[in-house]
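--- STAGE predict ---
source: upstream dedup step, 1 unique chain passed
mode: sequence only
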Amino acid sequence: QAVGGIGRAIVSNTGSGGFLVLLAALATALCLVLVCIYMIRAVVVILLVAVAPVALACHALPQTEKVAALWWRATAACLGIQVAQALVLVTAVRVFFAPDGTNVLGLSAVDGLVNLLIVLCLLWIMLRIPKWSERLVFGSSGGPTKIVTQFVVRTVKAVA
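--- STAGE serialize ---
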């Protein structure tokens, strides 16, 4: 129902002006990017499940403990993104897109520009949630490349 309401908000308001058509095209592009992010997240979850035994075995040594912690953070982030995006979507649809078309928060629900702007803001927030969770996973450590490089260097030093 939520996706249908957003789809109706995008499609029903495109016939009244050129600027609204551009906003609807932008909303459609953001929806496509969001679908791509959904697919990427599904692949990442599958990869995290595949490397789970090795990642959990990394708890055995102090040198590999950071890799195990990274796996835990990445798994929690992938599962948390889904929950956060669902909460944002359901909350926004229930608050801003009333089925009877009444005014919500002083905004006219019949105005196409307002509906498209609300949809664009909603999609933008949903696209930012994975970026925010990426910061939580990698923090100030410099990203995945630096973590893997540090792991390899520490492992080589421990073996040598």
